[in-house]
Amino acid sequence: MIAYASMGLLAAIVTFVLSLVVRRVGVKYRLHPQIRDRDVHTNPTPRLGGVAMFGGVLVAMAVASQIPFFRLVFAEPGKIWAILAAALIIVAMGVADDLLDLDWMIKLAGQILAGGVLAWQGVAITSLPFGSIFIGSSWMSLLLTVFAVVFAMNAVNFIDGLDGLVAGVAIIANGVFFLYSYLLVTVTSPNNYFNLASLASALVIGVCVGFLPLNWNPAKLFMGDAGAYLVGLLMATSAIAVTGQIDPSQIAGFGRSSLFPAFLPILLPLAILVVPFLDFALAVTRRLRAGKSPFSADRKHLHHRLLDMGHSVKHAVLIFYSWTAVFSVGTLMFWLVRPYSWAILFIAVGLVICTAVTLAPLSRRKAVEAAAQSAPPDANHEEDSRFDPLDEAVDDSRDPMTGPIRIHKENPA
Fold first, then answer.
1. Less crowded by CB within 10 Å, the N or C end of the chain?
2. Alpha helices in 65-164 (DSSP H)
3. Omega of the bond prior to 218 within 30 degrees of 0, cis?
4. pTM of this prediction exceeds 0.90
């Protein structure tokens, strides 16, 4: 555990230092795009934080390769080089997109290429925990791997719209996944606790911790597509390294014989990314129904809707953190605690609290509107009309002879 923490800390320090450098370079040479209609920020901000995060991963990987504890992780160097090559592809593509606004087809091709590089070197889904189903076809393994990588990268990128959102969600999600992968290897390989999935999760936590101070609201630096794609790629790599490479019977043989532990390699990656997956699915459905590309941009993401409801940027980000924590921690609890009712209770209570906090601005707004609608006729209608949707609608109605028509609720005629 100390070795993993050391690598995460190293990645955090390197990322933080490089983020300061990248920000200074970005500001000096104006390496930032124009503010778009869908953007929440109002000041031009560099989007090259992904470069600093990639630097943190590279340095931590290089140091880890020289530590004897991680010798089994680097026993297959082809996988490590494939991860770094895939990361380089998507970071380079992300930087180009942040600066030049690439066509979505080019971005999709780059994502597919990155997933293909991983599968080519053996970082691939080879089996599923559905009765230990093994994927005999290399082409099927390739397709599943590429799909998982592309899906994860885009899901993470889709929620990258608020200061500190992706970094914080990734810290929570990968913290839970690291705990799972670490505990899992203590069951399946008690003589060696070091594996690729845990190292990748630790590095994601580290680079996000190092990047978050500059990305917290008000953000001084954005990770951009390069950073979001990198986080999604490494999260997918962690899940792939576990999914399909663990025999569920090994878990059951350790006194955890039940349905949930056997399916955790599939369920946990879905749980830790449930919010990005939901936003991704809604966005793709929304855009396809409108006849647009699924990768076209709009201002209807979940984080935009939270802002429109009345949440501040910080409150919206904390709400996303809460939803992520409830689903990820609750899913892991099915393996860690008995009886399962405790995990169910945790998720149920967490969902109720998160829902209440999420909808709180609507309740406050309804209360203000009700007060405005029940105000006496001689009340300051001009001041309160913005809280009353009926008054707001009629304020734009004008009589061509007498000017604005003021219709009060007590005298609708």
1. C
2. 77-100, 104-120, 138-158
3. yes
4. no
